[in-house]
């Protein structure tokens, strides 16, 4: 009888440990924004191309296309390559606002419409809670390191090309 009680207790403890471990695993897979950890998304295999008057400029991008990914964005990210960025994809063109809370890097925010045309380029100051908005509905926002847009000759009216933008146009 004592052996059965120990066996039952062991099985119950093992089941509880399994449930806790499984919950911890799935919790750790969610984008982290409120827990001071940077969210790192997979780099999309296709580069984003900015078509400018001076030629084309390619960037490797992470795609933030869910609410949780867009909310976390580049928060807590300490560094990023000059040719890297994050493309925010919204379900439809709409008024959007960004802020830089918990974002230690200064950024360029490039706002583009449904057609991939750049509507506005704004600068984001580290840790600022000031709202950054293009003042018109957009479908995409590309975040790059501050100054990258100017150095690359990216201006209002230029075109952003990427499969995520191309499929949105159809």
Characterization of the model:
The protein is an alpha+beta fold. Helix content is 26%, strand content 29%. It has 4 helices and 7 strands; from the N terminus they run H-E-E-H-E-E-E-E-H-E-H. It has a 7-stranded mixed sheet. The protein is globular. The termini are far apart. About 8% of the residues have low confidence. It comes from Mesorhizobium escarrei. This is DUF192 domain-containing protein. Keywords: Membrane, Transmembrane, Transmembrane helix. InterPro entries: DUF192, Saro_0823-like_sf.
Low-pLDDT segments, ≥5 res:
22-34
Strand order of the largest sheet: 5-4-6-3-2-1-7
Q: What percent of the residues sit in helical stretches (DSSP H or I)?
A: 25-40%
Q: Give me the number of helical elements.
A: 4
Helix and strand sequence? HEEHEEEEHEH
Quaternary structure state of the chains depicted: single chain
Shape: globular
Radius of gyration: 21 Å
What integer is the average pLDDT?
Answer: 86
Number of strands: 7
Strand coverage percent: 25-35%
Termini separation: 70 Å
Largest sheet, in brief, is: 7 strands, mixed
Derived structural class: alpha+beta
Topology:
Blueprint: H1 2-28, E1 48-52, E2 55-64, H2 67-72, E3 84-94, E4 107-112, E5 118-124, E6 138-145, H3 148-151, E7 159-161, H4 163-169
Parallel strand pairs: 2-3
Antiparallel strand pairs: 1-2, 1-7, 3-6, 4-5, 4-6
Q: What's the short version?
A:
Keywords: Membrane, Transmembrane, Transmembrane helix. The protein is α+β, with helices and mostly antiparallel strands and about 170 residues long.
